[in-house]
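$ ./design --mode recover --in tokens.txt
reading tokens...
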């Protein structure tokens, strides 16, 4: 087991941690939803129509460009609505449960790839380059499983797994048949997984140490023409459980926390549930408007209380919307409550590890990129992040390739986006760059 020490990055000690690791059951969810945008690279074409009955594990839609890639229903019930946006783009597929428990029984004697495609587990994998769902004919150089999440207030994946940890060995066995290389497992120093059959590496250091892309870059980087797959340890356990039992497990444990949550907790529910079923009576009654995020504060999706739990289905964070639109002296304030990762306010004298209650205020406006090296300090990868961003904006393909576009995903730039004094939407820039690159090269 190798120990890899990362020095670049930053940990934000956000208020609202879960103090009691006891897992409780969620309230019943009136509907469930699958959001196609959660599965980048898959263009949905419906297999079911509104009003039709579906069983858990039955396909709802497949990829328009690759019919073998299917997304399945997490519950049995009726397809209530296909929500469409501009140009009839499918925004969500909503299922009304019938509580009958009907589920597809899968044949575990099938080819491993065919079973993953049929069960709907395939879209939970990610491919580098381009950070997309792999195509059905892809064969990766290596497969990387990340076993911890280092984002602010992220749940313990070991706790989310629970008893399903026993299926990891089977998952590694299955995944090993799908690559000519190795299956790697990236753990944190505090949460180890042993006897899984994977090549295990331990990563110590601040966020984004738990990002799959960071782990890949520090073990065996992706070069032009190579393909690797990434997934988290929870998805890996689902793969193992599917091959052991023949049934898909759509249950999940979600961490509900943040400064806007009165009683943070781990809650057991089903993928795609309503956020109301998770947040019912848990929001702080402080007179402030909450911002509900399905995911973590860096990469999650802003939702309303009537919204749904998005993939990867394990975290909901609530912070406050802008507390004070106008502050006395603004950026020049000497208040010890002002927060920065740099030593520009007196708050740094209180120590980096003090809990902070951050709201959604941007604290500045968009301005030109200044080559100060601040992106590089937040990204423990061997790339010149600021130059890569400029190459993406200019869409200079040669420079994008030379500067490491094949290694990165939007989430790798999330911390740099938070720290960015230029206030640029780095994740959006990287996503658009990857999409353009893929359209040009594929």
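writing sequence...
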């Amino acid at each position: 087991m190798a120990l890899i020490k990362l020095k670049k990055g930053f940990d934000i000690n956000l208020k609202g941690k879960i103090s009691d690791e006891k897992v409780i059951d969620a309230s019943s969810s009136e509907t469930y939803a699958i959001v196609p945008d959660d599965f980048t690279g898959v263009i949905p074409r419906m297999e079911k129509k509104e009003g039709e009955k579906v069983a858990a594990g039955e396909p709802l839609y497949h990829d328009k460009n690759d019919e073998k890639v299917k997304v399945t229903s997490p519950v049995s019930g009726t397809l209530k609505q296909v929500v469409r946006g501009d140009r009839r783009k499918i925004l969500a597929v909503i299922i009304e449960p019938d509580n009958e428990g009907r589920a597809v029984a899968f044949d575990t004697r099938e080819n491993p790839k065919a079973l993953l495609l049929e069960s709907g587990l395939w879209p939970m994998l990610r491919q580098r380059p381009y950070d997309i769902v792999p195509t059905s004919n892809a064969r990766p150089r290596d497969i990387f499983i990340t076993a911890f999440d280092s984002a602010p207030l992220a749940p313990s994946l070991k706790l989310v797994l629970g008893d399903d940890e026993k299926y990891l060995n089977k998952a590694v066995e299955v995944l090993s048949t799908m690559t000519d290389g190795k299956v790697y497992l990236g753990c944190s120093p505090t949460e180890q997984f042993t006897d899984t059959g994977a090549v295990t590496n331990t990563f110590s250091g601040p966020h984004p140490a738990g990002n799959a892309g960071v782990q890949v870059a520090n073990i065996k980087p992706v070069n032009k023409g190579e393909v690797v797959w990434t997934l988290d340890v929870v998805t890996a356990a689902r793969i193992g459980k599917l091959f052991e039992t023949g049934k898909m497990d759509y249950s999940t444990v979600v961490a509900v926390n943040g400064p806007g949550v009165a009683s943070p907790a781990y809650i057991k529910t089903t993928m795609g549930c309503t956020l109301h079923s998770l947040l019912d009576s848990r929001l702080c009654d402080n007179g402030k408007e909450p911002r509900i995020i399905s995911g973590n504060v860096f990469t999650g999706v802003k939702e309303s209380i009537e919204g749904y739990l998005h993939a990867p289905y394990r975290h909901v964070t609530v912070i406050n919307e802008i507390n004070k639109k106008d502050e006395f002296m603004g950026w020049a304030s000497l208040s010890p409550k002002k927060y920065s990762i740099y030593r520009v306010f007196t708050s740094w004298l209180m120590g980096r590890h003090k809990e902070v209650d951050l709201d959604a205020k941007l604290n500045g406006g968009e301005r030109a990129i200044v080559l100060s090296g601040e992106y590089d300090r937040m990204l423990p990868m061997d790339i010149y992040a600021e130059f890569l961003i400029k190459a993406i904006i200019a869409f200079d393909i040669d420079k994008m390739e030379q500067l490491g576009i094949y290694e990165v995903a939007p989430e790798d730039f999330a911390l740099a986006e938070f720290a960015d004094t230029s206030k640029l939407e780095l994740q959006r820039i990287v996503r658009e760059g990857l999409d353009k690159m893929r359209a040009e090269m594929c």
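exit 0
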